[in-house]
Each structure stands twice: as C-alpha cells, then as structure tokens.
Amino acid sequence: MHIAQIRERLRQAGAAPVHERHLLQLWAQGPARTRQRDPENFLPRPLREILPQLQAELAELLTLRSAHGSEDGSERLLLALRDGQMIESVLLPREGLCVSTQVGCAVGCVFCMTGRGGLIRQLGSAEIVAQLVLARQRRSVNKVVFMGMGEPAHNLDAVLEAIELLGSSGGINHKKLVFSTVGDPRVFERLPQGRVKPALALSLHSTDAALRAQLLPRAPRMTPEELVACGEDYAQRTAYPIQYQWTLLEGINDGEAEFEGLVRLLKGRYAVLNLIPYNAIDALPYQRPSWERARAMARALHERGVLTKLRQSAGQDVDGGCGQLRARAAGLKKG
Ligand code: SF4
Questions:
Q1: Which of 72, 138, 194, 209 has its CA 20 to 30 A from that of 237?
Q2: Are 22 and 118 found together in one domain?
Q3: Ligand 1 pocket residue status of 88, Cβ below 6 Å
Q4: pLDDT tens digit string along 188-227?
Q5: Are residues 36 and 151 in the same domain?
C-alpha cells in the first residue's frame, strides 16, 4: 500500500486537507502526540464510516515477530509483512530508528547478508511509515535513518513519499531523516527537488573504483570522485554535512592506499566520515579489524583534516549485521 492510495481513499470519503493532515498525523505520530479532536464534530460522516476499516488495514501492514534487545540500548525488530515476507527495523539509542526500504536488495554488497539473496520485492511507502508507527508503540522516535534492508535509490518513489510524510505529518525534523545510498544519479537529481530534504549518507567503502565495483557489484557505476562531487553539491545546497559510510574490512579497505585516498577525497569537504568496523558473519569470509587499529586510523584521518567518527554498528550482540535476523528466520544462514 502507498500513501497516495490512503490519501485518495480519504478524499473519496470527503476528507478536506485539514482532515487528511489530522488523520495522517494520528497514524504516524499516535494519539499521544496528536491534538485530540472529537470525530463526531470534526470528520464528515462518510469519512467516519470508512475509518475503522482503513485503520485496521494500516495496523495489519506489519506484525512484530520478535524483538532482540542489545547491551548498547538498541533493539532489533523482526517484522512480518502481510504476504509473509520479513524485514528488519532497529531501534537505535537516542531515539533513532533504522528502517528497511525493500525485502532483500539487488546491489549485492559482498559483505552483506541481505545482498546475498537479491531483491525479493519493494516495500510500499505505507509499509515504510508503518515501521515508524510500530516503533513508536515501543519508545519515542525522533530520527529515522534509511539504512536497513534494501537500497533506497532502487525504490525511490516510495521512499521519497515516505520521507515527505515523515517530515510533515510524522513530526520528524528534516535533518533527522537520513537517506542512505550507494550513490545513484537519480538520487542527486530528485532529492534537491523535494519539499522535505533529508540528510544524505553515501556508502563509499573504497576510494578505488575497481575495488568498490567488486565490493558493491551492482551499484551504479559512479566513481568515488563523482560521488563525492555530487555529495558536496547536495551538502552545500542543504547546509547539512554528508555522512560517508565506510565499513572497515580487515586487509581490504583499512590500508595505507585507502587512507591516502580518503585524505585526497574528503579533506576540507563539508562531510563526516563514519568508520564502522565490520560486524563479522559466520557465513561470509570477511573480518573486522581490531578496535585499536580502527581507532588509530580514525585518529590519523582526523589529524590530516578529515572529520572522522568511529562507530559500532548497533546491536552487535544480537545478529547485528543488516539482514541477519531475517536470514536466520528464513533459514538462509548457516550455523
Ligand atoms: Fe543492499 Fe545495503 Fe546490503 Fe549493500 S549493504 S546489499 S546496499 S542492503
């Protein structure tokens, strides 16, 4: 289901813009954060008549299968869609939520469990928003990052529709919506045109175009230089720094050549580099470098003028890599 279809049903039942805004706010933010109105006096009768059915359909978009709390304060949620497919969301410390945008993913990053099975289906924009609705029933959420299963650029219309709703009726500050992508020309064209402009995270992972193509085999062929140029342009237009994501893989992208490449590409940019030591997965042959090595690299980059943060991926102790809970539930994972 898409948000446009919900709007259409509301309008056909006589909703004026004020009713539509109120009902979408009630859905996305919940009754506690929405000003109470008496439906009898506020909503036209045909609208009141269709509401129970519509609300039931929205409530059924996602069902919580299991929740896995972690020592770092995050909580991984395994969610079932109406057709039985499963996705993951992660409640992050400090009122954040990481949402999925697809079931599976076509990019096929070699270090990612989700990428192994390819794309299964797109999520509708309502299924993306429903992850926030369900998360808010568990705790407060004021930031949404599109970094879960899937490549948002491959489901661009639905993701942008969800972003528009979250940044208006959903009550999330635009800077606290983070669109995360491997980089796609369509993203750089569409994002600046939106009424709600999210912050942007670009998955870089290597400054060497050939190695990056090996690691992200079906990402659009933009060179690291092109990516950074487009990112810088968006950062200057929006006045939000770009977040460059770098999954640190031992012996692959943690050496001297990449270090110098990062300094060359990112020094002086309006950007933050997030170094994220890889969360090793039994079924895949990649390892994480030691924390000391990662910390030394972050410090050295900082000294050379690249604003760098060393980050843990959330929920390390509970199958923390993207797609692992789903893989385990679906029997895709060995061990
Ligand atoms: Fe897709 Fe992200 Fe996994 Fe790459 S890391 S395969 S883009 S879900």
A1: 209
A2: no
A3: no
A4: 999 999 999 999 999 999 999 999 999 999 999 899 999 9
A5: no
- CA 192 from chain center: how many Å? 18
Question: Does 335 score more than 50 pLDDT?
Answer: no
> Which residue among 89, 218, 322 has the greatest number of ligand 1 atoms within 8 angstroms of its CB, and so is best to mutate?
322
User: What is the rounded CA–CA span in Å between residue 123 and residue 84?
Assistant: 13
Q: Atom 7 of ligand 1 has which residue's CA nearest to it?
A: 151
Note whether 285 and 226 are same-domain residues. yes
Percentage of the chain with pLDDT > 70? Answer: 93
Please list the active-site residues.
88, 322
Return contacts of 5-9, CB within 8 angstroms, 24+ apart: 5/126, 6/54, 6/58, 6/126, 9/50, 9/54
CA–centroid distance, 151 to ligand 1, in Å, is 6
* Whether residue 126 sits in one domain with residue 17: no
Shared-domain flag, residues 175 and 238: yes
Crossing angle of helices 45-59 and 125-136, rounded to 10°: 80
Range of the domain at 277: 63-318
55 and 71 share one domain: no
Q: Report the number of distinct structural domains present in the chain.
A: 2
Distance from the Cα of residue 252 to its chain's centroid? 25
Q: Atom of ligand 1 at shortest distance to CA of 108? A: 6
Length of the chain: 335
Instruction: Compute the distance from residue 202 Cα to the ligand 1 centre, in Å.
Output: 12
Does residue 331 lie within any of the structural domains? no
CATH number at 312 reads 3.20.20.70
- Summarize pLDDT for 238-296 with one digit per residue, the tens: 999 999 999 999 999 999 999 999 999 999 999 999 999 998 888 889 999 999 999 99
